[in-house]
Amino acid sequence: MDYRRKKKLTYFTIGLIFLLSGIEYAVILPTIWRYLQTLEAAPYFLGLSLSAFSLSGLLTGPLFGLWSDRTCATKKIILFANLFEIVGNFMYFMGYSKWLLLSSRLVAGIGTGAGSSIFGFLTRSTAPEDRSTVFAAVMACRQAGLLIGPAFNIFLRLCDFRMGPFLVNKYTAPGLFMCLLWILLQLAVVFMYWDIPPQETEDQSESVAEGDKEVVSREVEGEDMDGDDDEGKPLMRPHELLGSYGSVVTPDPQREQAVISNGNLSHISPPSSPPPELDVPSNPFKRFSMSREFLREEVVVLLTAQFITLFNQTALETMVTPLTQKYFNFGELENSVMYCICGVEVIAGFLFVRWLTKRAAERVVLAVGLILCNISCVWCLIFLANPQGGFNWQLAEFIIGVFLQVLGLPFVAVAQVSLFSKVTSEKTQGFSQGVRRSVGGLATILGPLWAGGLTSNLYVMLGVMMALLALLTIMLFFSYDRLVEPSVVEHADSSEDCG
Domains of the chain by range and CATH? Predict the structure, then answer.
């Protein structure tokens, strides 16, 4: 199978992984609150359960990223991580107690750590100018899962039967359903995913191979024409001039002297082993410094953007289901339809951002998204903290607030992850993406905990969120000039590490 076909199937499989992560979120979130209530869990257990999923991903993301940077074995990492998704969702399906449900989300969250390896792989295998487009497409796959998930939930809520000792109902069925989907994904990864090298590595390898064939052909022609005349033969063969991926290796002076004095290449035995630097693969962390990599101004701003936007997003998501139950008496069906509509909006947003990133710089896209987030938070603080008016007016206020919040998400998400991949080293991209996702994981832990304890005091909850957004806006304003791709990139070096 040729390189291009392998690359397309690999990207398709990555899309499936993010699609399933979105489906899992969409089928579990609308029902988990009622599920916990059937297990006699206190209200704070909702925040604990949502945060447990992020906690394990926070801890495992950098480890999986470090593993992929050292070995480039992304396929093995994905297969290993998906096992935790399978086990965790089966535990969620069992649902004997609130503690088992909490543990199930903790186990399933380990599987999300593979995302750092996947983003590292995408960074190495895409050109900087195409990266925003690729990241937008991958993130849109997750949002497509959020759109499709509620449709599955409409049918899963009709389940009411026993399977051996287990009860299958509208609360436990999502766990069983996701367990089966992750098993199917394992097969897709086995047969349709390859740890392909970057395109430039493939092209260079083919060029070297073609060069070897051409020189060998010339040597054969020279022997036919000149017989045993050594003067017609090249002094150095191409593989002696070329190092890893076509890099030039300085010839040995003693070897050149031997050629001159003897005048016959047959007297020269080839080196017993390649030069040391070609014998041992370079360690991407040999000159790595945590402080130099992550304490630079532009990196701090992007990590702060990752934390604050996800903190606010998950806090609002945690607030939504109790709020709709309190003011609008929404059940599982209504919440599923609401998430479905939000999914349509987010996918449209990602498609628009994909188009926009080809015509505008990522920092411009980030600034637009941040403005939308500020408007959304102000709206929620004014109209949702203490809803006024009748049912129709309150519902309209709620819909507008959710619409604005969802609208800003694609702008911030795509811009910050694309910029982060460009301002950090490509050699250690898996680990760096793991750190970025861990910062996001910390936000998705604290966000639900913050909102879960303040659902009855929305002024405090939304006021802190507004203050965080104001801080991020100030940081973006002062660091705007630094949010660009460095002039020196490391594509060739990163190719050598994973070639």
Answer: 3-194+293-498 (1.20.1250.20)
